[in-house]
Amino acid sequence: xxxxxxxxxxxxxxxxxxxxxCKTDTPTPAPDAGQVEVSGSVSEGGRLYDxxxxxxxxxxxxxxxxxxxxxxxxxxxxxxxxxxxxxxGWDYKGADxxxxxxxxxxxxxxxxxxxxxxxxxxxxALNGSDSxxxxxxxxxxxxxxxxxxxxxEGLVDLRTVIDYEAKASIGGDPVHGEELYGGTCVAxxxxxxxxxxxxxxxxxxxxxxxxxxxxxxxxxxxxxxQPGTGMTVGFDLGWGLQDVDxxxxxxxxxxxxxxxxxxxxxGGRLYDxxxxEAGVDAPTEDNPVWARxxxxxxxxxxxxxxxxxxGWDYMGVDxxxxxxxxSTGFPGVLNAQEKSVEDLLAQLTGGIDPDxxxxxxxxxxxxxxxxxxxxxxxxxxxxxxADTKAAxxxxxxxxxxxxxxxxxAxxxxxxxxLNFGDEDDPAYVGNIxxxxxxxxxxxxxxxQPGTGMTVGxxxxxxxQEVVDLLAFAQSLPVEAP
Length: 481
Fold this sequence. Notes:
By secondary structure, the chain is mostly helical. The chain is built from 19 helices and two strands.
């Protein structure tokens, strides 16, 4: 009986051991992909979507991405084929978006719908779990987390802000865009967007080029930055899509040609009294072209001032000098920005019209004047009410701060230290600002010929800041103290 009980006990123990061993040897099931949670930075993920190896600080991939062989329309090769944007587009819509045709076309789908995917499903799609050919685990776990976060939280529908046919901003406010640009972007890219050349000398690429040629890339990079740089990130500043679209609208007005090898600010003063700026004798006779009009009765050197024919607003007969004693009927020069440097120099030296020969100012001065025409002209009509001459949208309080920080040193707190007129007919800062706001804006931006006046363009003032200054100056006294 005891033996029988022993055998029963041993059999029970054996069964328990076998059961225990089976449980130990059975692999633990992988957690449901939907239960995986990751975290990361949206803005970092946006840069990873571009060139992830620069952001993750890992080796740049060599050879083509394995899935590249499944398409034959995009002929690029090497590390470019590993950029998310190359398959899925700057607008995140792949074959259904801006990359639905052209040299970047691959036929691959976009990632726009991935916003609704779980952490685990996105991670599986990125680390090769779903497809060994789509394995980006080389960027590391932290980077993968940021890329997942970007796909879930950073994607926006760019069709709401970009006209895909015209490549133009939809509903962007260029005035607000200039304000944002002037407060942030100008520090690195310059007032005209041409301080940094993204291309090379033969094929330069500036802010204006990117904004006009690839507005989808422009918006992506304004929101998330440029990989491998310290570029300020709009997303981190709290800029919404409307803010970025406003910057796009402004950037699409910036020049796209290489700047003329000259000084736009000096050119702006040459546009006023070029003989003073160039250090040559003032002309004594009337400009030969002057005989072609009879409404403006001025004479002598005044007839040689560019501003006298084309106006302080650069619009000639179509602007502030379209009527009154300064009217000549001559056209403006605002559209001359579109001309080549060669054509401008030919126009300035009598090559097109012998009566329009300003070559006496010298080669360097001519180059500076051409530089101003190409890079310095602006349409001031959005900033001045043509009927009342009042500043539009100017912040007088900010203008007062700017005035006190720079202008007051020479002009005085009330703008009456310097008299631009004479004792019988004095003219102070307040007079210029109220009587001729177009001249005021021109001189704030480029200075007064023959003086050491601080130049707004050189100190990086945006047009909004210039208009703020105008708004304040229009409150200054106009009578003699």
